[in-house]
Each structure stands twice: as structure tokens, then as C-alpha cells.
Amino acid sequence: MLAEVGPVRDEPVIALDAMGGDHAPREPVRGAVVAARRLGVRVALVGRPDAIEPELARWGERPPGLEVVPAAEVIGMDEEPARAAWRKRDSSIAVGLRLLKENRAHAFVSAGNTGAVMAAAIMYLGRVRGMERPTLAALMPIGRPLTVLLDVGANADVKPHYLVQWAQMAAAYLESVWKLERPRVGLLNIGEEETKGNALAQEAHRLLKASGLNFVGNVEGKDITRGVADVIVTDGFTGNVVIKTMEGMIDLVKRMAREALLGRSYHALAVPLLLPAVPFLALAGGVLAPAVRDVLRRTSWREYGAGPLLGVDGLVFVAHGRSDARAIYSSLRVAREAARSGMLDALRRLAPAPRVGVPAPPEG
Amino acid sequence: MLAEVGPVRDEPVIALDAMGGDHAPREPVRGAVVAARRLGVRVALVGRPDAIEPELARWGERPPGLEVVPAAEVIGMDEEPARAAWRKRDSSIAVGLRLLKENRAHAFVSAGNTGAVMAAAIMYLGRVRGMERPTLAALMPIGRPLTVLLDVGANADVKPHYLVQWAQMAAAYLESVWKLERPRVGLLNIGEEETKGNALAQEAHRLLKASGLNFVGNVEGKDITRGVADVIVTDGFTGNVVIKTMEGMIDLVKRMAREALLGRSYHALAVPLLLPAVPFLALAGGVLAPAVRDVLRRTSWREYGAGPLLGVDGLVFVAHGRSDARAIYSSLRVAREAARSGMLDALRRLAPAPRVGVPAPPEG
Questions:
Q1: How many CB pairs under 8 A join A and B?
Q2: Which one of B252, B304, B320 would you mutate to disrupt binding with A, by most A Cβ within 10 Å of its Cβ?
Q3: What pTM, to 2 d.p., does this model score?
Q4: How far from B164 is each of A128, A339, B88, B158, CA to CA, in Å?
């Protein structure tokens, strides 16, 4: 068992759900090995030792700082979240979260069942005072220096005042960790005017305006990637569709490039012969290739890593269910930065959100 | 005034709102001139002659088939839609729609105020029997041969059974115009299982399953660009956020390419000297440039053009408010194809949708 850890001094310990995600335990184990070797991250791999050890053995000598913490049960991706969290007390998710609670780890990362992670986190860690619903955020390296989009899938049906509490937490995170003064908060909506949008967006607009936050108004889908707000808040249904639409666009670019490469490979091979075209094509390659790489870095979850579950009393990060070793590596990096930064203290210092009544929707 | 037109024989007449959109009348006029010259489209430019004629004069000799139909008023992009539609009986939108009603044009295209176009279309043309709410669709050239995403912004707050009616119209369009047998209908949602999503999506899932349509289940954001369904149905808030998120991703790729070009132009100029790198860069350029172009063609409204307003009794197309001449050109092309295809007859033949009761949302 891991020794008790104090406040982060040297290198934080990150508990990683080795059984979570579509490619577990292979990809989590591989991501942990790479992170431990390259970054010196200390990782506690939580899960069934008989599944983890053979995967670890594939990667040669075990890096120092990597250890295995046994957990006998696994929560499946499709299990009913609340029930699974309640029943499986010895799941990798439950054991990992208890490591946090018992001060044996500084942060927990899982690519497993999002709903189960949220339910178990509330159960074992509790909520940050005043925050009614924990929310899942995506941290995208766009803007100054990043854009926090939330909720991206923890709450499909929401009340307008949740959006205010979520914006408060995201703003507190940017202020304390990134030293950003009065982060700009935007509301994801379908037009710039405050009368635009559905009933939820209209009411959330009114509440955000009165919240004391640095509310810059509505932000449209096309502006998410433009860094016009530091925090963009929306319901978990819309937010989840947004990040997955981005994922789809990235996949489309990659797929088209692959098809172009296969379908036109004879053209491409002929390129060096087509002398007059070479400077132009080389220019296109020299410009487009880094541009596409840059877009990936800023908008792909494989690169920007796991998102924090804001509102639970501990550093919990949820990675994409399809996470490969690259995504796990990015997620461990993000969790380690958060553990070093004092992010949790900033959230705990948040004054309880004012209890905002939810008036009836406007007539007509 | 235009003569009365019968059923489409040779070349349909498309009424174009010359005053609608952020760049009117310049870009609509330019788009119409190019479409008339290149495609031989017959266009009725509707709007203030004193604004249209000088723009027309910029492009040399007027192409045959282009004429100006006077309309004294203009509805602004930010005007309250229903009121503006009701009061401004001589707006370019009202006059254009009346050309349809009076059989003086076969289709109407506007990049103006979407809400006003919808309100005026209901007022002047009426609804297709059985369809409670007209819906705006995006026709993306993805899949076999295209993916119809709807609603993309006409209805922010919806009832679950609207989604069924919209799916029926989109399916009828694909069956009649594209000869697609039993088009696959998907519901935009945040997971594959039928219990996923918000209350609206869960209820819509149940209704679609019982609808007799070829319902293939939930479709996630990442699948929109993969052609997994021919029709993808959602509420107008989510759909609008989706197409604008796609727009943002496209803008991001372009912006990064531009920054790479400016910031590294000295590298690029040095490329022809860096002989060993040239074949690789040329390959990258030869593969990536067409791939990015292909993605644009499939996902950018500039290329795929205006979307049909399904559910009103006439061929009405709404183009993006930011439309430039290129987008107007694409929109006129799409409207002309629709007019030639008998799309409206297919919608009129739709049996009234079964009146589906909306049960109370599930407890808990």
C-alpha cells in the first residue's frame, strides 16, 4: 500500500485507473510507463494485478515511481453509473478515489465510465461547499493561455443557476492556477443578442449578467476556437456534442489525408518529377503540415488531456473513453500540473454561490 | 414584373433576396451574376433597385436571365422576426416569397434574418399539411451522397415529436430527390445507448423507434462527419451550435495556416534550398492541400450552400448570414437542383404525421 502523502513537495503521486476506458489495461499501463520515464511522474496503477503486471512486463524494466495498487473489481463502460459506484466498493475507481481521500495520492485520473467516476467521487470525496452539481470541464490550449469549456458531459439536464456555479469554479481555477485576472466568462448560445437561444440559455444569460463574474455575453460555436472567452459555459448535452463534433472534424481531416495519400499515391510519387510544381507543393506542405499539427494540439483530447471534475472535493480527472497511451500520457501531465498548482485550494476558497431562485420561464 | 411561370421545364427561376445578409447587396448581386454566367441560372434579384443597380453595373454586361424585382423595405438582421415579417409587407423577403406564391419563381433564397424568413414563409406560403413547425436543414455532401442535419437553428426550444416530423420530411426529400431507399435516420445524442442524453433526447429516441422510419439509433458528434446516417435530427439549439463549431474548426485550420505562412515565410522561402526536405514537403503539400480542400467542400456552408426550410409550402432556402458571393453561388445552385427535382411535391405527398402524444417526462 502507498504511504500517506502530505502536501505536494517534490513530485505528486497520481492514482491512475488502470482498468478504465476502451483500451484498458494496455493503454493506461503504457501511458503511465511513458509518463514515468519521460516526465518522472509518480503513478499508482490501480486495478487487477493479474491484468496489469503482464502489460507492465511488456515495457521492460519498471520505472521508479510506478507502483501497482490492487483493486479486485471493474466498472464497465455501460454499467448504470450510480448503482455501479454504490455496489462495487472494490472497483479500481473506488480504490483510486479512496487513495485521494486517505491522502495517499494527490490526484486521480480515469478513462472509465464518466457517470460512475462522478457518482463515486461525490460518495467518497464529497462536494466543494456551495456547489450543487460537479461538472466536467475540457481545458483547451486556445487563447490566453487556455479556454475552459464546461460542462462537457457530466450533466445532460441542467438548471440555469448550475451554469453560474460552474463559471465561478472555472474562473477561480484560472485566477489561482494561471494568475489570470477576472477571466472572461461567455455563455455558449446561437446568437449574440441576449434574447437569443432556448429558455435555458436566456435565463442563464440573465443570471450570469447579475453574477459579479466578468461576463462577456454570448459566444457562438464558431467562436469557441477563437479565444474570445476564457470560460465558456453550457449544459452537458451541448458541451459534449461540441467536443465530439471537434473530434469528428479532426478525424475527417486525417481520413481525407489518408485517402488522398492512398488514392493519389502515384501522383505524389510523381511529384518530384513535376519540377515546376515542387516549390508550390513544398510550400503547401511546409505551411499546412504544422498548421494541422497545431490545430490537433489545441483541439484534440489526445493532446490536451483529461478534464477536471470541478465541484468534488479532490483532484479528479476524467479522460476520454477512447484514450490511448498518448491521451493517458497527456492526462497524467495535466493532473500533475493541477496537483502542483494548488487548484483544489482555490476551489475550496470559493464563497458559496448565492442561492439564486429559478423563476418560471417567460410567458409565450 | 416577372411573368407567371409554370412547372419547371427548362431553367427554373430563383428569387434571391438581394438585401439579406451581412454583405448585402454587394455579395448577393455578385453571386447571382456569377451563377447566371457560369450555370445559366435565371435569377430574380429582389430589393431596392437604387442599391442593386450600381452593384450590377460593377460586373459589366448584365447576363441574360438576370432581372431586378423592386422591394422598397429591408428587414435588418437583428429585427424581431415575427413583428418585422408582419409589418414590412414590401420587404425583399416578403416580395420574394410572394413571387413563389404567385408562381413567378420556383424557389426563394435569402441570407437575411432567419427568423423573419421563417415567419414570413409561414405567413405567405403556409405549412405543409401535418407539419407543426418548419425546420431549417443543412445538406452536407458527406455519406451516400449527403447527410441532412436538422434543425440547425429555426427552433431553439422543441418538443420531442417535432423531431419525428422533421426526420420524416428529410427522409422524404432523400427518397424522392436522391432515390435513396429507406434513408437511415439517427438521433444526435451523447452516447450510443438509448438511455443516454437529456430528457428531450430520451423521449425523441422512444418516438423515433416507434415511427416506422429506418431509425438507426443515436449518433454522436464525432459521427456527424462519418456518414453513419443519412438524416441526423436534433433540436435547433444543438444543431446550430454544431454547424458553427464546424465553421470554427475550419476557420482555425485556415488561421493556423495563415500564421504559419506569415510567421515562417522565411523558412518557406528557404524550402527550395533545403533540397533533402523538398520531396517530403512536396508530398505533405500534395496530400494535405487536397485533403483540406475536400474537408472544406464537405463541411463549409460556403461550399454546400443554403439549407432548405422544410415544412413550409414552397422551396425556401436560408443561406448563412455571413454569405459571400461564393456562398450565394452555391446556394443558387442548390435551390436550382431542388426546383428541378420535385422536392416540394415529395413533401406535399407526405401523409400527416401521426399525432403523437407527449407523455410527462419520467420521474426522478
A1: 232
A2: B252
A3: 0.85
A4: 41, 48, 33, 11
